[in-house]
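Hi! If you just cloned this repository, the fastest way to understand the data is to look at a raw example. We've pasted two of them here, unedited. The first protein comes first, obviously.
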Amino acid sequence: MGDLFTFFGLVSHDHAFIFMTHMLLAAAIVLLLAKMAMSSLRVVPTGVQNVMEAYLGGVLAMGADVMGKEEARRYLPLVATIGLFVGIANLIGIIPGFESPSAFLDFTLALALVVFVYYNYEGIRRNGVIAYFKHFMGPVWWLAWLMFPIEIVSHISRIISLSFRLFGNVKGDDMFLMVLLMLAPWLLPMIPFALLTFMAFLQAFIFMMLTYVYLGGAVLLHDEH
């Protein structure tokens, strides 16, 4: 089975070129949507502004269920931006001739590292170094020698979990789409494409939810146990 056909692949088949062009395309679409939403703000939103406000309201409500509305609002810019970026990156791959940047491990690993570094930074900044790493030792002091290395491994494994979950699902969707187009190149079945669209949104939702969960666990230590 050959590689997916892409329009950018007509210029170069280099892995880095394909990845960078599709990632920059996703980023450009996100910036364009943001500019369209902000270009003519109205008290009663319409068009793109209405869609973006509904999206931000949904992300805020999701975060409020995890860490409270005040804390969720604090981290809304980060989580909403990641969700929009991942969502657009996923959706690009559904269009024949394009490939999802999130189907490249470079993309998902970079996002996972950003989330990992940021939530640990916020945990240390909000609680202090001692208090933050103390919660790695668990609620029972005499099990600290066992809990601390387990917690360290658990936190590091989040990088693998975040990156490989998104990469694996989107890559699998791309392979499914390639087989689909090989079997029916002129007749595009609507049900599989609708399923791929749903999966694109679902993976973005999961990434946002896990980001909120990790941030909540890092900054709200007094509620953890």
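Ok, and the second one:
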Amino acid sequence: MGPLGDRLSAGLALRRKKDLYRQRLILQSAQGPVARVDGREYLNFCSNDYLGLAAHPRVIEAFQQAAASYGVGSGASHLVCGHSAPHHELEEALAEFTGRPRALLFSSGYMANMGILTALLRRGDHVFEDRLNHASLLDGGLHSGARFQRFGHGDVTALERKLNGVGGIKLVVVDGVFSMDGDTAPLADLVAACSRHDACLMVDDAHGFGVIGERGAGSTEAAGLDADAVPVLMATLGKALGTAGAFVAGSELLIESLVQQARTYIYTTALPPAVAAASLESLRLVREESWRRGHLASLIARFRRGAAQLDLPLMASTSAIQPLLVGNADSAMLMSEKLRQAGLLIGAIRPPTVPAGTSRLRITLSAAHSEAQVDRLLEQLASCWAAAG
């Protein structure tokens, strides 16, 4: 590869030197509270399967039945011949569940955010994003052609100063639950700020949908906000619902505009119909089994109480994402490896995913975990933390 190969090699070497090199685990089991890697079983505290639905028998059965009826591939994009009955039924169910007129499926959360932002915005518009937004939101804003501005994390006052200085089309974009810190956006205050400055609000609720709110409808439900307050609502299906893909819910005008203009919707093969059918069954379980959210909330509280007693520096989060702040990337990697040796899978999150000096263990809890498993997690964290000095 010549000079390009030299540059790539140097880049990889630098990542290794700085303890920023990433490697994949090869799982030999389904997602669940226990996962098998290299023939050994581990307690799994790094999955986003928050409700324990990824391997639920009803979800698997729905997938199998739909695969038998529709095959394993959709064959084309939604606008050619890839939009099947399961896709359509899931979109209608998601719209009803979120209290919006329509919903639109995308193949992934990243594609949804890129498609939404680049379709809605153009040169001369303004987009304002929380500094800790997910990479897909930041990339979508940067690629939209609009003037891109970031504001301090959760700092509504700073946002208003920026909104006050511009006219025209203004879109404010935030995560509902932030994926690396686990905290929740001040949605009610953001809605009020947008109303005062004639701006539109988009919320990415990937880590809140299915988990937060009385019905599990997400961060906007928990904040008591309706469709008018949050006209652009995006969420993923691969976390609490345990399947794959993403959707955006909103008005007829919004969804039809995305159908016609969102390039990541128009120019890609649709999700397999079996995934849509499995997602629909997961959504039914979210509606029927509220005990999952209750049990998860109980585990989160138990974990935080135990961590406080052990003086573990957890970040301020009441979500299923419970980050343990370590600091240096090498220290985070060392703790992750020690925990793996003790039979626990916990990911070390390092720059550039998080700012330098804030490397952490990203601990995630699931409704599939037991109290005993959470207690074992606390015991091993205390041991590793004490050994690290």
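That's it. A detail worth noticing about the second one: The longest helix spans residues 291-309.
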